[in-house]
Design brief:
Layout: H1 11-19, H2 23-45, H3 48-65, H4 76-95, H5 117-133, H6 139-150, H7 155-162, H8 166-183, H9 186-198
Helix pairs in contact: 1-2, 2-3, 2-4, 3-4, 4-7, 6-7, 6-8, 7-8
Length: about 200
């Protein structure tokens, strides 16, 4: 199961076995983390195609570097998300683009097939508005929000991934959510809808 699922796996034991060259353990780590890493990367890039490529690269890097991993009190997941974060940064640097999610692609980060058309239109607008609202956040607030809500990391895992104490992550998350709530007020929503209609 993936993070947040009902079944717990012993990640530390799998890491030890993978470091010894056990292919099944590596496969189990991939199975456990791949969906969450993909969600995180997809949320950061807004492109399912790029997210698939970067996610695959994350696990290639994991395979290449896992023998050098030492926890030093930090969970394996934080090491994995640092790899993902660095690859996303490299991706945008190579493209010469700002590290933001393209609004027109953001609806691709969620599966819309389960919704009827009206619900999908509402969801699409909501996702586009959320990503637009994310522009008011600092880069660290964006990272914390992405890890906590897109990837589903715990407070401790997020703290480890961004190199901050848990209290600092709580403060960043709180400040980010407050800013997002302000940006997502009905008044801001109406402005956003008007802007979208004006571009059509």
């Amino acid at each position: 199961m993936h993070p947040g699922g009902d079944v717990r796996i012993d990640v530390d034991e799998l890491v030890r076995s993978a470091q010894e060259g056990d292919a099944a353990s590596f496969a189990a780590l991939y199975e456990h983390f791949s969906d969450a890493i993909y969600r995180y990367v997809s949320f950061k890039t807004g492109s399912p195609g790029d997210a698939e490529d970067i996610t695959a690269e994350v696990f290639v890097k994991m395979l290449e570097s896992i023998r050098s991993f030492k926890s030093r009190g930090h969970p394996f997941s934080s090491w994995l998300y640092r790899i993902a974060h660095n690859l996303v940064v490299d991706h945008f640097r190579a493209k010469g683009r700002k590290k933001t999610v393209p609004i027109e692609a953001s609806e691709n980060t969620v599966g819309a097939t389960a919704f009827d058309l009206d619900e999908y239109v509402d969801l699409k607008l909501t996702m586009r508005h959320v990503h637009k609202a994310m522009e008011v956040l600092t880069s660290l607030q964006k990272e914390v929000i992405s890890l906590r809500f897109a990837a589903g990391l715990s407070l401790a895992e997020t703290a480890s991934a961004v190199g901050k104490k848990e209290n600092a992550v709580k403060a960043l998350q709180h400040a980010g959510v407050v800013k997002l709530r302000r940006a997502l007020t009905p008044e801001a929503n109406l402005t956003f809808v008007a802007e979208q209609q004006g571009t059509q």
